[in-house]
Amino acid sequence: MNSESLRIADQLRRAFTGDPWHGSPVHDLLTGITGEKARARPLTSVHSIWELVLHLDVYLHVSFEATEGVPMPKLYGTERDWPALRDDSAAAWIAAQDRLFQNAEKLAQAIERFDDAKLQETVPGRPYDFYYLFHGIVQHSLYHGGQIAILKKALAAASAAAPGP
Description:
This protein is mainly alpha-helical and 165 residues long. It is built from six helices and no strands.
């Protein structure tokens, strides 16, 4: 039986593209954000929206790989944790978003395939189980979604305050 796995996958989907309890999913938050806005830093000492998208994508990707038996690498404090923005073109921004949502769905589908007993198995390369990982990924996604929401508001405020032509 995999009823718990189905509920976790549902929560992950809600965070990215569904109807989360807290407000807007990441997909809706990114709607209308251009590449230029995504790489802007309206709050100087925090990551940009684009950096947050790349960061979320890394965690979705390595979590999916862990479901396939690949040891989960240490990310915190490494270059992989916050990938550098190497191409800031409009096409690269669209591709980054597409990859994020594809990886979110790919992980949700992998979670759905777990039976509830497998949730208690240890994640390869980590000292915790899949149940902890999957709930953590949902929490991580919501946390950074909240940061995206704040940055989007800061961008709108900065734009409104900018002098006109």
